[in-house]
Design goal:
Blueprint (H helix, E strand, L loop, with lengths): L8 H16 L11 H8 L10 H12 L21 H12 L7 H22 L6 E5 L2 H19 L9 E5 L4 H10 L2 E5 L8 H10 L6 E7 L11 H11 L2 E5 L24 E4 L1 H4 L7 E5 L2 H8 L33 H10 L1 H24 L3 E3 L7 E6 L4 H13 L8 E3 L2 E7 L7 H9 L3
Parallel strand pairs: 2-3, 2-4, 4-5, 5-6
Antiparallel strand pairs: 1-7, 6-7, 8-9, 9-11, 10-11
The structure holds pyridoxal-5'-phosphate.
The site of pyridoxal-5'-phosphate has 13 residues, from helix 6.
InterPro entries: Aromatic_deC (IPR010977), PyrdxlP-dep_de-COase (IPR002129), PyrdxlP-dep_Trfase (IPR015424), PyrdxlP-dep_Trfase_major (IPR015421), PyrdxlP-dep_Trfase_small (IPR015422), Pyridoxal-P_BS (IPR021115)
Family: Belongs to the group II decarboxylase family.
Pfam families: Pyridoxal_deC (PF00282)
């Protein structure tokens, strides 16, 4: 075995061959959840003072570990939010790894950061956030929401002359993503929960909730969702943004899942008002076909974010050269060291062009509409609501929560699909989350046939 930092052509061939095979799987098999006792016994003794033959270790991964992972890039994975990274993005992710690209500062990584910023610019332009908009890529929507709302909080406390521990609140819909609730707990900000109108946050309800509030604790921001994860509902961004401007509230838009719809002409109109967002998050690792983990965080006025997030440490002084071109991604979120995780998306966008992205996103939207039509025509099924984006909620008449779970288990055991039940107004129902452009209507028909 050569030194572990020396190039080993046999090891390289082993891994590259494996990657070639994985990239060519068509379709990717769904596979199954693992059993802890089995996995433990496979892993037992594998890491100790002496190393092992890489062929042996890779076969542990290939034969046991990888098969105990349900493949979220399978076109039959229709639970939660699936993934469908492009081959170009996946391959370039390996380049990012092999080149040890990090993305902290302009001083160290200007080439990588310039390319990431080209993508952030594109996203800001699709949203219409204005010429100054910018930000950085973070690990996910949760990290993006957290970083943005820290800026909202601190900017407001400065503006209102409040101290770092004074109470402030942020208005959120009762349908906001769980990461928003987590964020508020982490940053010590209380929610003003605004009741939604048919699961949608509206300007009218926000106005009423603010008017009814007599707590005396200032509300400093509002969070809208551009595509709820469960049902794909886009809040009344126009109405909410109007009140945000009237009341000087920071307007944050969580588009982790649905933000990709900005690229799709058939639904773009539903995002009207997003151009007023002070901060906006979209997860390319969801519906913009990038590998994990990748979320774009964009601020209308990034200078405010920089004032809040810049880390002060004497050894970091050199990265803050304060030249006009300098852009340090580390200054726009709570992180320091970061992978240049925007580059796989940059490469894929440059290779394929934005039209190909629009088409791939439209494919999921079309499939959602066609599936809704199939459900409407099935006497034993009921469509719960017209899909706004690519998620479809429906019920099988007469089924209990146990029936849905047993059905879901059968589908996975038969490798037909991974479709987990979800909750809707306290009821257990079925849900499809479409995203992979290779999920066909035939797969949907096959699944629906199992519900007869
Ligand atoms: C997925 C999602 C999140 C969380 O994003 P992660 O990338 O999983 O951290 C936040 N908000 C919404 C609306 C989401 O769909």
């Amino acid at each position: 075995m050569p030194s572990m930092h020396a190039y080993d052509s046999e090891l390289a061939d082993l891994i590259f061959d494996y990657m070639r095979e994985r990239l060519q799987l068509d379709p990717v098999p769904l596979d199954h959840p693992g059993r802890k006792d089995k996995l433990d016994s496979v892993l037992a003794g594998l890491i100790g003072p002496e190393g092992h033959d890489p062929h042996k270790v890779l076969s542990v991964y290939d034969d046991h570990l990888s098969q105990a992972v349900i493949s979220c890039d399978s076109p039959r994975f229709l639970s939660f939010i699936p993934a469908a990274p492009t081959k170009a993005a996946l391959l370039f992710d390996m380049v990012v790894s092999c080149a040890s690209l990090q993305g902290i500062s302009w001083l160290e990584a200007s080439g990588a950061i310039a390319a990431e910023n080209q993508v952030l610019r594109l996203i800001a332009d699709f949203a219409g956030m204005g010429p100054e908009a910018g930000g950085c890529f973070v690990t996910g929507g949760s990290a993006g929401n957290l970083s943005a709302l820290v800026v909202a909080r601190d900017v407001a406390r400065m503006r209102l002359g409040l101290g770092p521990y004074d109470r402030v609140r942020i208005a959120v819909s009762d349908q906001a993503h769980s990461s928003i609730g987590n964020t508020l707990r982490i940053i010590g900000v209380e929610p003003l929960v605004v009741p939604s109108d048919d699961h949608r946050l509206t300007g009218a309800n926000l106005r009423a909730a603010l008017a009814a509030d007599d707590s005396g604790i200032p509300v400093i921001a509002v969070v809208a969702t551009a595509g709820t994860t469960n049902a794909g509902i886009i809040d009344d961004l126009e109405g909410v943004s109007e009140i945000a401007r009237e009341r000087d509230l920071w307007f944050h838009v969580d588009g982790a899942y649905g933000g990709a719809g900005l690229f799709a002409p058939s639904v773009r109109g539903r995002y009207a008002g997003i151009e007023h967002a002070d901060s906006f998050v979209v997860d390319p690792h969801k519906w913009l076909f990038a590998p994990f983990d990748c979320a774009a965080l964009v601020y209308k006025n990034p200078k405010l974010a920089k004032a809040v997030h810049t880390q002060d440490a004497s050894y970091l002084d050199v990265i803050h050269m304060d030249t006009p071109d300098e852009w340090n991604p580390t200054d726009y979120a709570y992180h320091l060291t970061r992978r240049a995780r925007g580059l796989p998306l940059w490469f894929s966008l440059a290779v394929h062009g934005t039209d190909a992205y629009a088409q791939a996103i439209e494919a999921a939207l079309t499939l959602a509409r066609e599936s809704a039509e199939l459900i409407r025509r099935s006497p034993e099924l009921e469509l719960i609501r017209e899909p706004e984006l690519s998620s479809v909620l429906f019920r099988r008449k007469g089924w209990s929560a146990e029936d849905y779970q047993a059905w879901s288990d059968r589908l996975l055991a038969g490798q037909i699909a991974f479709v987990t039940p979800t909750g809707w107004n306290g009821e257990t129902v079925a849900r499809f989350a479409f995203l992979h452009p290779h999920t066909s209507l035939a797969v949907v028909e096959e699944i629906l046939a199992t519900m007869a």
